[in-house]
Design goal:
heterodimer, A: alpha/beta, Rossmann fold, Ku70, Chain: A, Domain 2, 4 domains, seven-stranded mixed barrel, six-stranded mixed β-sheet, B: alpha/beta, seven-stranded mixed β-sheet, 24 helices, 18 strands, elongated, nucleus (chain A), Integrator complex subunit 14 (chain A)
Chain lengths: 587, 690
Amino acid sequence: MPTLIALDASLSMLRPVPGRNEHTYQSLAIKGIQHLLDNLTAAGKLEHLGLLSYSTTAELKVDFTRDYDQIRQAVKKVEPVDKACLMSMLKAVVSIMSPWGNQNILQVVVFTDCGLGFGNTSIISFLEAYADKETEPEFNFLKTLANYNLNFICLGLHGDHYFTRGLAVYQQLLDKVSLKGQLFMTKPAKNTDAVEGNPNPNPNPSHKSELGRTTVFELIERLCESSYKSSEVTLKCGSYFRMEAPVLLWPPTAPYEQKSLVFGREPTTRHIDQRIEVCGFLALSDIGSPATLSRHWVLPKVEREKTGGSRRSGSLPPAAKPPKLNLDVSNPNYELEKLETDIRDFYAKDPKDTEESGDDDVTIVLKPGPQTEQQKENLCVLLHGALKMENMAALVKVGDKWYGFIYAFTDGKKKSNLMLNILPPGTNVIPWVGDLELLGFPEDLAPGETASFPVRADRRSYSQSSVVWIRQASLQSDVQKVLRHAKKMPDKTQHFYKELNRIRRAALALGFVELLEALAMLLEKECAHLSLNGASNECTLQLQHAATELRKTSNRDIKSTIIPLQKVGASEAGSTAATAPAAAYMY
Amino acid sequence: MFERNQKTIFVLDHTRYFSIASEEYISLDFLKGKPSGDGGGPGAAGNAAGSGGGSQFSKSLWTCACESSIEYCRVVWDLFPGKKHVRFIVSDTAAHIVNTWSPSTQNMSHVMNAMVMVGVPSRNVPTSSDYSVIHGLRAAIEALAEPTDEQLAAMADCGQEDLPRIPNKGRVICITSARDNTSMKSLEDIFNTVLVQQNALAAPPAKKGLAIDHCHLVILNIVPLGVESLVTNRSLLKISPLLDVEIHTVSAPDISYKLTHLILNHYDLASTTVTNIPMKEEQNANSSANYDVEILHSRRAHSITCGPDFSLPTSIKQGATYETVTLKWCTPRGCGSADLQPCLGQFLVTPVDVTSRPSSCLINFLLNGRSVLLEMPRKTGSKATSHMLSARGGEIFVHSLCITRSCMDEAPAITDGPGGRVPDYRTAELGQLIKMSRMVPLKVKDPSAPNLSRRLPRYFPLTTSSSILFHLQRQISWLPHFLHLLVKEDMDKQEEVRCQQHIHELYKSASRGDVLPFTHTNGARLKISKAKDQYRLLYRELEQLIQLNATTVHHKNLLESLQSLRAAYGDAPLKSEPGASLLRSYTESPLSPERLEPLSSGSGSGSNNSNSLLKASKRRMSSCGQRSLLDIISSAERSQSNKRLDFSGRLCTPLGQVAKLYPDFGNKEKDSLTTGANIAPNVKEESIRS
């Protein structure tokens, strides 16, 4: 989810926060940005972030990057200049975001004190201009903007009249232009009456206002909860408990609006299941490149534990216990987990430690320190390795009649990871793979039955010898083909009649009887021409025969085929053969 | 779901007028092509003679109407097989139905064959009012009222529930020839009236067929080449809430171009021209020239790719009235590049000119299994492969690829993630299983067929460092087979016996104190405690493995003997060394009874199994709490008596036959056992084995 952080750099951001003399609105905004970066760093630094500051003009400070330090540095250097102009910023956002196209979920996070701007660049005058002129080209960018998720971190006090008015107008903007947006603001302070009715809350410096570092952090937490929550599912591959593991899908999966199968019902919004199960495996070459709804990294879920505990574990036996303690006796797999731990301990023992009596606690002290995350075995890594080695993909069921593929994806830099392609819901979404519910294993085939990919479709016009004579050139090439075979008779007699019948059949279907006559004439000419050049007797006889048959009206029906003139006999070539066509003619 | 293009009906005028020539002449010389060199003289003379009369001919208006409407449905059926339906109705003195909505008649060969029966309109019949296109139009309206299979299915789905009615829209394309605007007007009026009448029939009392929600009537008024028509062209006009009509006058040879143009809007199609396709020349095979091939496909193939800031390059082909997107051919690289491209949509394609040489070259190239990437220029001057052509299962698809920047770029490597640094995953084993679980398309699927969970092993440690068994299976030759037998769902008695023997082997080598051939320890001798550990772990793992796979009574028997073995081996929280040494003397004792077994032909061996269940449970109970030495010894003794098997030869022999003694005679291990004393010294055993 590429995210553009937009920081309001209007002069009003320099105001000190009432009741919090140590903060200005800007310093709070910067703290908020840092906190957002902290959160995204903890989530794995996967999001691409960009930084934009805006006043009258918008300026891209940091282009999209996963190097969050760049943003941390740049955000400190933003210096407020003049007034805020939200609309020009949003317009700039659209052009900055454009390289991402519309396949990614795009996020914009705006840190602002909700100033309305002034004069003709203010939001209010924009809304006036926009009314009833939605289709004007100057507002085209709003259609693109409507695909983005706009998140406003609204910094202000509910007692502040300007701020509350600003909130209302911002909400109005989102509604009028139908943008996907959300305003994040602090909850009004409980003792609001102390500030209410007082347009300027400054006179109460002793009273801590509702806006502060903690509250801004809360806003960021809410933002992350609503927009950056990664999808967590269980990946299952077989029945052994180790072959089932919690994984994160990144970017998070989006809900899918599925049309009802029954006509006229409301569409349903679908999410993928909490447990996705591998159904079987397919070669990548059998899958090809089917259309996918979305693609996601399948990342091992890391148990986030306090890092402090493990560091001390080497020295104190009680501290070394935690890895053992999480083996819960009530766990159904307790025996298996204990066995694995014991086997690992067994291997880990240094043969030199001969003085150890065996299986008491002392050995634990001597084993290497607790494993880092990278050293803990994980299903994703094993599956990735095996799929990559075999060039195969795992077909996973992500929902009812909804499937996807997990495979090892290697990018241009040879970095490889496990990827999930989610297919559109349905079981018949890849024509050449066939019904996904009908996929099975070779053992399920009936005896003697064979099956392989691809599933073949009916023949299309381009894979059979279609006849289309709309362009004269194609008619010409068909006729030429017959004539070519004609010259090579008797060797090509069969080919000649095959092509001849093909043309004849097509001509009959199209009611193109003129062609039959023309072809008969051509054949006769060819016959005369060839006999002059001393062609074989057989050849001229067949041509004569074919021409005659073409002209017969009795042959103009679907079942009839022109068959080669039967050889009267190899010995009586000359005179008797000459009568043969005549006989055929009379018949 | 039920769009207007779901149902299309061609009404072809089959009256006498259509037998006249289109006046676009084709000469025989043209058909024949260039006269070849050797026959120059006489051939030229012949042509000269022929040019006087009858050497040129022309398609009739009927042929033009027929071939262009068939071409129209070729495109439809190529792109939307089984989804969009086209019907033909031929009209002269009555309406002749060429095909129905049934899938069996919705294909080219059915239509072509039926058209042979229709034939050319006769020239000899006198003009009469009986001959009219009106019959066909009436039949077309009736056909629109007939439900397609999809509509029937949807109606069945809806059932009695109170859901919106199934929409029923359609399009009628009428190829006819009218005298003037007045007769065209009356055609429209009649059509509209019949439409209203038809809907009256469909209304509740009669309920004959589906009511028609809307109909789009396209009238193609065709005239021979060079003839002026009195009918004026008219774009879409709303005649009534039920009916929109448009009228096009075209000269007969151009009717195909007109329909190709119309089909783009009718089915929301777009045209792509693949440019710069290198093709070998027929004359000189060394050089290649570049050709262009135009294909049709759903418009979404373009629109899905274009982001707000990407536009595909378009051009207008000579003589055409629509835009085509020109994409450059990229000579394919490796084969693997075609798999799992980030694809946003796949759409069937069909060439505009299916018979031309460049088209068929491209088609054959694709049908032979190669894929072609198509390139478009970017605004910045760089290029992007926006589409891919590939054929699968005999169908050609255009894949729209994702060309925008993706958040998936710059992948995190899995080796940097959790578990990425574990060196000993059982990748090769899983790879084998994956290959064995490769799926195939079935015609019918038995719901009771084992799914993947049942195919994959129930015990599958991810790494070799978390398993003793799978670590050793490369070192001990009989282990893989043993493991294979153990997980068999249909284990039989004979296999059980084999397994029991293997368990005994393990037992014996444990009692001898053999070191298991681990690769980790480099063959260094383990201390006694360590040596004991290895068997304890091995037994435990074996027990887990059998427990997870226990499906038959044989598995249960094995499990019991293994559990007793574990108990005998003192796999309990024992620490006292004397206990272990005592135990060892016991564990070695089964050697003697086994040797004696052939002689004492035990008759009641079957009862062992029934008792053992009870005993096993007792054993398990005793093995967990605090145990006295007596407990240990007596439990070991109990387990020994339990363990005693019938002579294996007898077990393998069918009832009533005489068992063969020493079938494995010559086997070293067996020999050593028979010669060994009650308590064979370990050293001796090892020397024999090595």
